[in-house]
Amino acid sequence: MGEVGHVFLTRGDLRALWCDAWLMPCDARFRPKRHWWQDTLDEWVAPTPAEGSRVCAVPSWPADQPQPWLLDVGGGPTMPISWFAEGVTELLDRVAPWVLEQQDRSDVGLYAQLPEF
User: Fold this and answer.
1) Which residues fall within 8 angstroms of residue 21, CB to CB, at 6 or more apart?
2) pTM of this structure
3) pLDDT tens digits for 82-114?
């Protein structure tokens, strides 16, 4: 457990950065907004997360590209900030072990982006 990682919160197009994993904000149906999806959302097949989970890896993502992880941030403006923070905590708890499995990569780092409100 001596591994140390990084989480960076940034504004910008994370699809243009190289990283191991990044947060793709989505609604409660696990559908991202159009600007996050590279193709049309008409072709989007929402993954099925574990029961009660707000986090899920985007399936069938090319292995040579940074892996996006969906996080349900569709709680709306009346949700307390703690609800969003719990989602980010769940994301990091799910992604960290996955990143550690990617040990053949030269750089390991976590990138997450919170949606704008």
Assistant:
1) 66, 67, 68, 69, 95, 98, 99, 110, 111
2) 0.71
3) 999 999 999 999 998 888 887 655 454 544 454
